[in-house]
Structure prediction request, 677 residues.
Amino acid sequence: MILRSLTFTNFRQFREGTIEFASGDDENVTVIHGQNGAGKTTILNAFKWLLYDRIEFKDRPDRLATEGAMAAADVGESVTVAVELEFSHEGAEYTAKRTAAFRKRTQGDYDGEIIDDDLTVAIRNDGETREPGNPKNTLEKVIPERLSDLFFFDGEDIDELSQFENREHVQEAIQNIMGLTILERATRHLETVAGRFEDEAAETGSDELATLIEDKKEFEQSIEELKTQRTDKQRAKKQVQERIQYCNQQLENLEDTKALQQQRQKNLDSIDDLEQEVADIEDDLRAQINRNGFITVGMPLITDTAEDINRLREQGDLPSRLSNEYLNTLLEAHECICGRPLDHGTEPYGQVASMKGDVSTDGVDQAALRLVGGLEQFSERKEEFSTETAECIANRKEKRDEISNLEERNDDISSELQEMETEAGDGLSIQELESERADKLAEKENLNKEIGQLSEKIEQKQTSLDEIEEEIQQHRDKEEEARLARRRQYAAERVQHDLQDSFDELKDRVRNWSDERVRTTFDQIASKNYSAGINESFSLEIYREDQDGNRVTTDISTGERQIASLAFIGSLVKIAQDRYENDSEYDYFTGGIYPLVMDSPFGALDNEHREEVSRVIPELGSQVIVLATDSQWEGPVAERMSDRIEQQYWLDYQQEGDENGRPLTHIRSEQAAMAGE
Prediction:
């Protein structure tokens, strides 16, 4: 897929305009730069809206039509929004166009009500033009939506790929770029076949087995529903977290609130460290209780036992030697030392009589003294245990007090911010921005609780499901009539397992390719003695090698995570292109040629890293489109990439740019911008 041009009509702040993309072998970079709010993210979303009918604006996501066009329309009139993309793919020329009509409902309505939308695709090949009946599927085959986040991405958020908790996203990205649709489809189909044979086994088995299988399906369905709910909550939490980060960034960018926001973040970092220390203390406390907690509970009994033994010894009830003479005395008295009757012919009588002739020469008195001495050692252990636990509890209280003090300071900071009425941008005051941040934090906390409750329910359901599956297995072993169906089911499961192994093997092979590519690309950029790669857990990690050649992970900055993530995406694009161009020997992995569209890839980088990233970016793909702010673009970035740029545009944003005084952005080629047009 080679991008040719992108044309706007009434799309957000673009009333009209066209961008033509670089497609040369050496000059393969298109640069689009402008001030904050000029429309870089709008261009990124234009691709996603056109190709997938998806938009991801953080600010006014429902306002798609240009504000000026909506303001000029009369109530009841409609404004047509359109984005058109021209591109080539496998020898054919494509024109894709998505339109939407928005009707103005009231005089102050700038969002409008959507009344019509359409998607068309025209394909020109060998002098003929055709329009496929299902344009959505046509675009999906060219650049699947599952790959969209790899090729159209926000550089300021991309560093998340290098965080451990996102290793599943890394694995998913590797699997998506491979295009293993045959193995994926076969694996899913065999799972269905195995389920059908399981149903057959239920029909030929007992009623109880059939009931258990029905119960199993109900539990599986219930678990899937709970997982879906949890996923929805996790997505909602991510959106809330993004808004919190936006508020934090806005507060840190403002001169009036920068110091307060930085202090609050410093306090939050300290709270995280203290909470980890509290968790470590509690782990230590639990370990001590597990080792010695019984002493506190059993100490009264231990003390009483020692006192009883001493009393019996002092009274002479414990003889110095357990002799045959002493045993005869007990038998003649018909009463044991414990008070139990010793009647002739009874079992107790016989037990005591059998001890004669086999008594110990060691005095019971001495044994009692040793026993009392051993019991007294528990008292010393009790004091040591009490001292250690008291120190842990005191230390924990001290840490919790520090956390409370820091939280109070942050509450004071929040109160101070909520009293500021200064404008913060986007029509919000500092007071409103801080209030929104507080609301989102509360919402995030509620979502965390709901996610935790759902996870607990899933765990409980899974436990019950495991018990049912164990019962089912026991019944299957007893059901002779279901044997054939079971053999078929097991055969399908074995084949599925073999296919899954093949799938995993190829996935790991691509992981190794990606690991090598990431390491090579990162080494070209990074200035420290670190390297980057994809480990066996599919985590994108930054590490150094010790003397034995082992990887040792290390703490890294946001900029270094961003570099690693860029190297990872570039590696996948290159792997796909290599497989496509080199007539791959792997039947299930044919690869492809894809463009890279990146918004703000330099945001978290210092000038040194920006320069190095700029040197590598043109090599990440056959066609690269870079969206950057003026401040990010000027200086080392522009100088380093100048000889690889074929097309360059400046987004000329004007707050009152149209005839009605509404915001407007003009797309100007670099030559026009330099001429002042």
